[in-house]
Amino acid sequence: MAKIKMTTPLVEMDGDEMTRILWKWIKDILIEPYVELNTEYYDLGLENREKTKDQVTFDSAEATKKYGVAVKCATITPNAARMPEYNLTQMWKSPNGTIRSILDGTVFRTPILVKGIEPYIPTWTKPITIARHAYGDVYKNTETTVKQGSKAELVVTDKDGNETRELIHEFTNSDGVLQGLHNLDNSISGFARACLNYGLDLKQDVWFATKDTISKKYDHRFKDIFQEIYDNEYKEKYEALGIEYFYTLIDDAVARVIRSNGGYIWACKNYDGDVMSDMVSTAYGSLAMMTSVLVSPDGIYEYEAAHGTVQRHYYKYLKGEETSTNSVATIFAWSGALRKRGELDNISELCDFADKLEKATVQTIEEGIMTGDLYLLSKLENKKKVDSKTFLEEINNRLSALV
Ligand code: NAP
Ligand code: MG
């Protein structure tokens, strides 16, 4: 069989530890036998980030801007313990943070559902995708403690030097605490467009919620910007697809999410997204079954797994011990990126291949062959735990029958 050809290169960002091992195996066993891979390769492994003084991370983000689609392996974000381990001259910043700020993107996380691993909420039969606004609010706050007898005011000085003041509180009877938050119309608009674009991509409803009844200017601004952008730029396209943009209060949203069947995108303010994405991913079962895609407002996509480099398994691997690391989220990062490349370049064979790769992966688990993490969760009776590489070979046995 002739391999599928690609036209535009896919930006490939290699990474660290166990996921770097899986990365190579996924390519060798599941992709290269079928696709004549055309990637522009960037080694974001920590050694090469050190060697290039992190330039490689910036270059890979620029390449993603140029070509439009990237697939990324999990990478180490260095902490104190990594400094001697990798002989680092600097505690290099999180590559994900660097890439996100260059692409100005929003991260969408979606669980992969398989039979036998039931969500804690039994009605969630379809995935809920969470989009977290990644700028501002409490994550860029200024805060202080306040002594009794102090008066706190909100002071804004405009560009001509005029001040407006508003009383926050007179701390007459007690010491207290104080916090200043901000956000930017630009950033909120970018977030709204990324979410509404992703809704069109997935042909799913987009939900958004804030506490605008209480926060009549701050949260209300978020609500208004979303509504304005939806009405002016997306309403017709949404109506044509039969999907909707739905706004409600955050507490109402939480109640509706629990009662829902899933199958929509939930756009969250920064803090809501931080908290709710942990709740939603845990409720679906496993972080190792969670994909993640960074989407920029101008339609650039970077696919990855939501989990890290699985360090503990890597150390076992280095000692020659058997590992049973789940590669599903990384496989879906590849399938997501190849499908998007296929869509943009009109290569339907590439999109079909991505569908089949996902199908074979899900089928393998549903037929009872899985890695240790899923083995603990699966309710299947005939389940069998296999090692990291055997799992990929089992997927390929099914994939080769599909293509
Ligand atoms: P982690 O790599 O996600 O792993 C934490 C634990 O979760 C593992 O020890 C393992 O549990 C389980 N796990 C995660 N993914 C798994 C998989 N695919 N298959 C089976 N089990 C899996 O998080 P971490 O240990 O906190 O972080 C390790 C490194 O990853 C850090 O250097 C961190 O900076 C980096 N990181 C990178 C990204 C990214 O690039 N997107 C994200 C998060 C963390 P058991 O040990 O119990 O089997
Ligand atoms: Mg969190």
Number of helices: 14
Tally of DSSP β-strands? 18
Q: What strand order characterises the main sheet?
A: 4-2-5-16-15-6-7-14-12-13
Main pleated-sheet profile: 10 strands, mixed
Task: Specify the overall morphology.
Answer: globular
As a percent range, the share of strand residues is 15-25%
Mean pLDDT: 95
Radius of gyration: 23 Å
Low-confidence segments: none
Helix content: 40-55%
Give the CA-CA distance, first to last residue.
9 Å
Bound molecules: NADP nicotinamide-adenine-dinucleotide phosphate, magnesium ion
What does this structure look like?
- The N and C termini lie close together (9 Å).
- The model has no long low-confidence stretch (mean pLDDT 95).
- Helix content is 45%, strand content 21%.
- Helix 1 crosses helix 10 and helix 11 (328-345) packs antiparallel against helix 12.
- Strand 12 (206-210), helix 7 and strand 13 form a beta-alpha-beta unit.
- It has 14 helices and 18 strands.
- The strands form five sheets. A ten-stranded mixed β-sheet has the order 4-2-5-16-15-6-7-14-12-13, with helices on both faces. Strands 1-3 form a two-stranded parallel ribbon.
- The chain has helices spanning 17-31, 46-51, 55-67, 82-85, 95-103, 185-202, 218-241, 250-259, 270-284, 311-318, 328-345, 348-366, 372-377, 388-402; strands at 4-5, 10-14, 35-36, 39-43, 69-72, 106-111, 128-132, 142-146, 151-157, 163-170, 176-180, 206-210, 245-249, 264-268, 290-295, 301-305, 369-370, 384-385.
- The longest helix has 24 residues, at 218-241.
- The relative contact order is 0.16.
- The chain has 403 residues and is an alpha/beta fold.
- It is globular.
- Residues 74-77, 96, 287-288, 304, 307-312, 325-326, 373 line the site of NADP nicotinamide-adenine-dinucleotide phosphate.
